[in-house]
Amino acid sequence: MCCVGRTPTDESSSVSGDPTRLAVLIDAENVPVSIWPVVQRLLPRLGCSWFARAYACGDKGGWGAIDGVQLVDAGTEARGKNAADFLLAFDAGRIREAGTVDGFVLVTGDDGFTATVRALRDSGVAVHVIIPAIGESYGRRLAQFADTCLLAAPPAVVAVTSNPLAALPSHSSAPSAPLHGAAAKEARFVDAFRRCTPDSGGWVHLSKFGAALKSSGVSFKGKLFEVSSSMPVFEVRGPKGLDAAIRLRKTSVSVAQVIGKTSVAEAVKELF
């Protein structure tokens, strides 16, 4: 994996202290789902994935089956040039306006999102880009304007090193607003979960999840089964004991929730 980005002026880490809340937005029509495990390994270096969404127009590419990724699907009737791109860019603007995250991670190799990256950065948040190292074009303009740009090789060709993330730069941005209470605890739980290796169904054995929490320095009161079950982001499979397992809850987001309209075409008419 290769990394290019702006020289950081503020060293921060998602492993200790308050995590940086990131919205992970995936160009589902151009990014293969096979790259997701690589993306998951890179995300903790940039911050904490507050939520992840994949955008498509009928061609889901398998993203709807990934735990912890919300699918925004406009359906086949919205197919057309840049329809899914419009959804992603529009949603990014709405998320920024809501102020619920400290930064963005765009998973795409499409230079068409350069304007979106620039607009988000100009609004005062950090924007990182993870580009699948597939084909001959790696999104050179995205790399030019993003705070950090990472090339993610497909799993089959990833070169294993002793510490592949050690040389990656931290992002340059103002210190994020700290999380408190339940929100902070849930963010750290999610961060620890993403360090585990789930099975084909997205499940992680509860004991392995507990070990990941411990190694991440996350403490909590009570039994892990009850604590995890109380968090909406998780789905816990019982019964309690040796066979208990946990995974990120599968969710989806409707087009209406993203653009406030029932179809992309309806929204475009109002914009132009």
TrEMBL record:
<dbReference type="InterPro" id="IPR021139">
    <property type="entry name" value="NYN"/>
</dbReference>
<dbReference type="GO" id="GO:0004540">
    <property type="term" value="F:RNA nuclease activity"/>
</dbReference>
<dbReference type="Pfam" id="PF01936">
    <property type="entry name" value="NYN"/>
</dbReference>
<keyword id="KW-0614">Plasmid</keyword>
<protein>
    <recommendedName>
        <fullName>NYN domain-containing protein</fullName>
    </recommendedName>
</protein>
<feature type="domain" description="NYN">
    <location>
        <begin position="21"/>
        <end position="132"/>
    </location>
</feature>
